[in-house]
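re: ur question from yesterday

yeah so i grabbed the chain u mentioned. its 155 aa long if i counted rite. heres the sequnce exactly as i have it in my notes:
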Amino acid sequence: MTFEQLAALCQEAAADLVARQARPLPATVVLPLAEATRVTSLPQLPEADPDRFDLLARFAADVVRPAEAPCYGFLAEASLDAGGEPVDVLVCVYGARKRGAMVTAAPLDDTGLGEWGEPEPLDPTAMPFLAPLQHAVDAAAPPAPPSSSLPIFNG
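ran it thru and got these C-alpha cells back, copy pasting raw so excuse formatting
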C-alpha cells in the first residue's frame, strides 16, 4: 500500500463513518491489515490529552503491535476557527512505518462531508496522544520481500 492509497482508504472510511453514524462522530482508528481493514470506534475517547494518550497506548499494545500493522489512520470530529467562525470538520490523520504522519480535514455539516484539504505533515505537538499509534507502526516488521523462483546472486 502506498501512502496515497492509505490516505484514500482513510478518507473512504471517514465517508462511511459519516454516512453510518450519528453526530457527534466517535473517534475512530483505521488499521489496514493484510487480511482486511480493521475500523475501531472509540466512543469514550477522553477529553484530556494524557488520558487519550493512555487509551491509545493500550489500544496500540493490545491491537496494533500484535497485528504488526505497518500503518494507521485516525478520524475525529473537531471544531476549527475559520475567520472568526467555528467550522465543524472531520480530521483525518494517517501515518506509516518510518514515514511519520500527515493530517487533513474536511468540513462537516448536516448534508455530509465536504472536500478534503491539502494534507500536511502532522506536528507531533499538535496531537501528542497519537504518538503510541505511530510508535507501534514504526515497530512493525518490514514487509517480506516477494518470493522468487530465481536465485539472487550478489556480485
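noticed a couple things. The beta strands are 27-32, 37-42, 71-82, 85-96, 100-109, 112-113, 120-121. also Residues 3-76+93-103+121-138 form one domain.
anyway ttyl
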